[in-house]
Amino acid sequence: MAPKFLVEPDIEFGKQLLQKLDSQDVRIDAALWVYDPESENYQLVIASRDVDIRGARPIYTTIQDVLRTLPENQRGRFSDVAVTSPSTGVVATLKTAVNTPTDAIDSIRITDRVVNRELIDDAYIYRMSSADTPGSVAHSSE
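Now predict its structure.
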């Protein structure tokens, strides 16, 4: 069980960031908070196929710009955000169990579950869309 808790301000920050990125037409395939037992912290993981094409830097730049537009009391820490490809790491693992529509902003929680032979201590999922199934129906294998 994750000793640290994901609190409502973090959840709301992730939701707002995803909405703002969507409004700027940034293609986001997955967005979720993931607990990392090694660092004992949560990280907001943003996955985009564009990382495979152009790298993560343009998305990080957009995230920095978006953070500047949020009121200071609603701003999350840039260091808590990780941009990645949807075909690697925890995103690739969770795609085998969870799938949402491409424009979803859901609240799917997976805690202390083994997914594709990998232990997920805690994940709070806003979006987990598979590139080859746009508009699919959200579901979880819990």
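Residues 8-131 form one domain.
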